[in-house]
Amino acid sequence: MWVANGESAVSDHGANLKPGVSVSYALPAGPLRRYISTYSQTVVAPGSPTVFDQVYPEWPNIRLTAGGDMAACTGPGPLQPCNPICAIGPTSHSTHFSLAPGRYWTISLLPLGWAQLVGIRAAEFADRWEVIGRESSFAAFAPLLDCAGQDDDFTSIAARFDAHLLAMLKRPARREETILKAHDALLDPEVTTVDAFAERAGTGVRALERLSLATFGFSPKLLLRRQRFLRSLSQFMLDPSLAWIDTLDHQYVDQAHFIRDFRRFMDTTPGAFAAAPHPVLWAAAVARTAIAGKPMQVLQRPSESV
User: Fold this and answer.
1) Each residue of 205-214: pLDDT tens digit?
2) At what angle do helices 281-292 and 220-238 cross, to 10 degrees?
3) Where is the signal peptide (predicted)?
4) What is the pTM of this model?
5) Calpha distance 53→188 (Å, rounded)
């Protein structure tokens, strides 16, 4: 487990880490790592003010709290309560959120995890949140709330998450190897076209389109565009002293090209994003890189999760 908090200045993120906020990460048990990338715990200390932040587009997540108060909105709009446990599908817009003093946990699903543990068509839940109730498509995740509420020791909580999620595993997901190949291809910076994406996945373009919408949530073209953008944003997250021009992925024609993508995926400008406080995001980037090798869930290869 690795922790970043506002009491320790870590590299160039030090000025962005907020006292009273800490973020910890842990890897799931080995058999889960092709389905789940990480578990995280965010703590906003008692007496601290509510924190506000935004997170870049991601793969799906299960988020929960025991005694805290969280609200969120993907894309423009007002924050909506999402207590005590909610599911969010794959996103193509940033998610704004608030966390009152309390403890919060995130179980980050990889695309194969969505196919295995959820099973509904990912495009139907893209850019959407849902509080998990008895009739929810995510009802099988509801017992995770009990796993988190028993004590404050994150190592013990992660072990209970493992036990519950391992019990949810059934036979291998349909098209499991194709999903893994497609995921691996998506993360290769040299894969720049849908044709190349399909070839690397070992399938046709039309089949890739169906697979992408069912498991990844978006069309192959949008997935490639999102990945290009997030590779660039991750460089800034690891070193906020960089100028944006120094973070650009090689696929960008110029800075204006990148700014258009920034507005599309983050619903704001690069300058406004850099100027805003990010008390959770920067701490998460430090802690996640230390434990998983990547600052973002969406940059983690399936091969790095096995």
Assistant:
1) 999 999 999 9
2) 100
3) none
4) 0.91
5) 29
Instruction: Determine the Cα–Cα distance for residues 133 and 143; give it in Å rounded to an integer.
Output: 11
Say which amino acid occupies 189.
P
Contact 209, 220 (CB under 8 A): yes
| Nearest by Cα to 61 from 106, 31, 125, 9 | 106
**How many angstroms separate the CA atoms of 276 and 16, rounded?**
9
Say whether the peptide bond before residue 84 is cis (omega within 30 degrees of 0): yes
**pLDDT bucket at 304, cuts 50 / 70 / 90:** low
Backbone region of residue 94 per phi and psi (left: phi > 0; alpha: psi in -120 to 50; beta: other values)? beta
* Structural domains of the chain, ranges and CATH numbers in brackets: 2-173+277-304 (2.60.120.10), 176-275 (1.10.10.60)
Q: Which residue has the tokens 């990338």?
A: 37
- d(Cα 12, Cα 138) in Å, to the nearest integer? 38
Q: Taking residues 18-46, what's their average pLDDT?
A: 93
Closest CA to 205 of 192, 188, 193: 193
Could you tell me which residues are beta bridge partners of residue 39?
A: 26, 107
User: Which residues lie below 8 Å from residue 256, measured CB to CB, with a gap of 6+?
Assistant: none
> How many angstroms separate the CA atoms of 161 and 61, rounded?
14
Rounded distance between C-alpha atoms, residue 123 and residue 208, angstroms:
14
pLDDT band, very low/low/confident/very high, at 170 (cuts 50, 70, 90): confident
Helices (H), the chain: 111-113, 144-149, 154-168, 176-186, 194-201, 205-211, 220-238, 255-266, 270-275, 281-292
Q: Assess contact for 291 and 27: CB atoms under 8 A.
A: yes
The predicted model gives 236-245 an average pLDDT of: 83
Taking 50 as the threshold, does the pLDDT of residue 138 lie above it? yes
